[in-house]
Amino acid sequence: MSFSLWAALAAPVLAMMVRLNPEKPQLGDTISVTVELEQAGPAPTVTVEGETYPAFAIGQNKFRAFVPTTPLDKPGRRVVQVVGSGGERNLALWVNDRDFPVQNLWFSPGVSDLKVTDYEWDRVTAFKRLVTPQKFWNGPFLKPNAGPVSSVYGVRRYYNGVFAENYYHRGVDYASPTGSPVVAPAAGRVALVGYVSDGFELHGNTIGIDHGQGVTTIYMHLSRIDVREGDMVQPGQVIGAVGSTGISTGPHLHWGLYVHGASVDPVPWRYEAIP
User: How far apart are CA 204 and CA 86, in angstroms?
Assistant: First the structure.
């Protein structure tokens, strides 16, 4: 993740530099596009495969955009187009394939009959699409629960013997007893609180934290919620407790990390200081 790819415009002075990180991303990675301008100017635009991602100022004449990748994307060549006051750059990037495990899950009739409610779907979808200009986090994310990982990111699944074509496990599961603490991995604003009693039948009791600049995290199947919407939380702050609400085979925390609405692998965010 430490590799830096720099590109400069062919001009007497360096007008715009672009860095892509990581050098060799794989499906599920978050691609960081950092742009430095020679002179002050508006934020550049970053476009990949027809999708434009916002760039935010992270320093003097320095901007950064995040480009998410998921297990449902096709591996291969991408062209990252950056257009700014310093000119235009088109950088080729290869996104590598990745093997994801396959699981078979069996639910009892009462659990398998649970469906996402319209209210639940609308609230969660709106939350994942948040793009707050302010950046709240600083440095690597903490582990949100002390339990061992019971299911990794990207797992493909059979549910009651039927393969879910467009499904992949959108997060990491931590197996812990009911009531064990769940902490905020990074600073942010609580932008979503949902209870089973209000219609969160699939996710169970849920918390969503907005970390800013299109980065959000979600915490599902909770037994207890200790925060309210609008609260500002800090790294390590207890926000709730592990449970087995919603569609769940047992007590665990589901932790998901989203970039511009796409579920990416949270693990690199824990071990790399994404600026």
Answer: 48
